[in-house]
Design brief:
single chain; alpha+beta; 5 strands
Amino acid sequence: MPEISRFYGIIIKMYFDVHHPPHFHAEYGNHEALVEINTLALIAGNLPARAMGLVTEWALIHRDELLKDWEKVKNLELPDKIEPLS
């Protein structure tokens, strides 16, 4: 699963074996969450509140890039890296 971004100990990834809705995986320590790109709703898993807030803030800024990466992984192409939250 390609890593798209990394910031504050959070790793953002997308699987090639995609299923709807468009989403990404956020990992923080032993926690993992699946986040829908369009709504930023939590699909599965969990993150500590502070980490989830950072992921949401980052995803709001980079939603268009996430959707472009989603299309790439659907076509079995490597996604582009996305700038971390700073």
